Amino acid sequence: MTCDGAIRCASAVLSSSLDSASRHAKGPHEQGPRITRPRPRHSATPSGGMSSAASRPRGARAPPPSGYDRQVSTLIKQVRVFDGVDVLDADCVLVQGDRIVKLGRDLSAPAGCVVVDGAGGMLLPGFIDAHVHTPDQGTRDEGISALRQALQLGVTTMLCMGCRYPDFVAHLKALQQPDLADLRSAGIAASVEGSHPTQLFDYYPTLNGVEDVAPFVHTRVSEGSDYLKIVIEDSSVIGKSTPFLPPEVSAAVTAKAHSHGLLVVAHAQSRRFVAQAIESGVDGLAHQYVDQPLTPEFARFLKSAGVFVVMTLAVYHSHEGVELANDPRVRPHIDSRWMDILCSSVGGQEQFQEYGLAAVRPLRDAGVPILAGSDANNPGTTYGASLHHELDLLVRGGLTRTEALTAATAAPAKHFRLPDRGRIAPGLRADLILVEGDPTVDIDATKSIARVWRSGVAGRGAAPAAGGDVLIQRALDVGVSIPP
Ligand SMILES: [Zn+2]
C-alpha cells in the first residue's frame, strides 16, 4: 500500500460525546478542563541545579543516583530470569554497583555481597513506560510523587510524550534518586494554534509555518528534549474540528529534528494523519489510530516505513482503571493525589477500545515493533500502575505474554535509543524487578512485585511497604542475608 492509498481511505468519525458526558472526564488527549497553570515552583536540585540534565549531551551516561556505592554487590539467586526477550538458562544475577556483571547458575556470592533469595520468582528488566505525561501543575512534590509511584510499581524509566514546562522536567531528570524512576521527555510538542494540546493551556508555543521550524526545534534542543513529538490532530476522532499541523510543516519539523539527531514520534489518532506522519518521515507513533479499524495492509505499510507503535490501550480502557485501584498489590503504592484520576473514566470510548485491541494482532503479524505505553496521567490511568494494565491489554489483543513483556523492556530501550537498559545482560544498568510468580505464564504476575532496583539500588523492597498487603509482605519475606 502507498501513502496515497491510505489517505484516500475514508476516515470514520467517531460519535463519542465527551463533552456531553459531564460526569466523565475528557478524552485521552484532553486532560481535563482548561486551567491556568502556575509557573513551576521548584527549588534547586540536590545535585547542583536543574540545568545539569538539560546541559548533558544526549546519550551521555547519567550520573549514578545518590545511594549508589560502587563497592556494593548484590547476588539475586533462585530466580527465573527474563532478559527482555527470552527466559534464560540462569538462576542467578550478580550486580556490582549500578551494573549487572554476571548471569549464570549457582553463582557464588563474593565476600560482603548482599544475597537476595528470589524464592523461585522472576527477575525482569525494569519496565519502560513509553508514553506518559509529567504532571503539568509543575510542583516539585507532584513530580517526585509521579516518579516515586512509577518506580514502586516497577517502572524504572518513564518516557514523557509532551509537557508544558521543560525546565520543570529538567529539574526532575536531574534528581537521579534510587527511589524515583528515570525520566526522558519530548518537552513541548510541535503543533499549531487551536490544535491539540493548545486547548489545555493559556499559552503554548506553536508553529505558524515552515519559517518557525528551525527556531522551534533549536529551542527544544536547548531545553534538553530527548526526542521530539509532533501532533497532527484535527480532533475529528472526538467529533470536533480543529486546525492541524500541515504536511509541509510536519515534514520540516521531522527533518530539522533529525538533523539535530533527535528521534521523532507522532501523535495522530486518525489514519489519514498517521499516513501524513509517515510521509513526514517520523520514527514512531505515540498511539495507534482509532478512527477506523487497522487493516493488515496498513500494518504492512507501517512495517515497510520502519516505524514503531506505542499502543496506549490503557487510556482507551479508562473504565478499567478502578480495578487497578482496588488491586491490593497496587493500591498501597498509589499516591492519594492520583487516585481520583485513576478511578475516573471517559465516556464514548467503546470504538477506541475495539479498534485499539483489534490493531494489536495485525501489527504483530506484520512485524511492526509494538511498545507499551499507558498515556498516564490521563483519566483511568496513573503512573506505574497503568503499565501493568497496558501489558494485560496487549495480551488480550493478541501478543504472547513474552512479547508483551518485551514491549515494556527491550523494545522501548531499543527504539528510544537507551542501550544501557531494557535487558538483563552484563554491563547494563541494574534496573531490575523481582516478582512473585511467572509473568510469562500469567501476565498478571507483573503486579506481584517484591523488589525494584534502580541502578543497583533497591528503591522498593528494602523494607516492607507501608500498608502493604499480605501478598507483598510474603514476597518480601524471601529473605536477605549478608554472608561474612
Ligand atoms: Zn499522551
TrEMBL record:
Biased composition (Low complexity): 46-61
Keywords, in A-Z order: Hydrolase
InterPro entries found in the cross-reference section: Amidohydro-rel, Metal-dep_hydrolase_composite, Metal_Hydrolase, Metallo-dep_Hydrolase
Region of interest (Disordered), ranges: 15-69
Keyword Transmembrane: no
Any GO molecular function: hydrolase activity, acting on carbon-nitrogen (but not peptide) bonds
Annotated Gene3D superfamilies: Amidohydrolase (3.40.50.10910), Urease, subunit C, domain 1 (2.30.40.10)
Sequence ranges assigned to domain Amidohydrolase-related in this UniProt record: 122-456
Coiled coil: none
Lineage: superkingdom: Bacteria
PANTHER family: ALPHA-D-RIBOSE 1-METHYLPHOSPHONATE 5-TRIPHOSPHATE DIPHOSPHATASE (PTHR43135:SF3)
Name used for this protein in its record: Amidohydrolase family protein
Organism, as annotated: Kribbella capetownensis
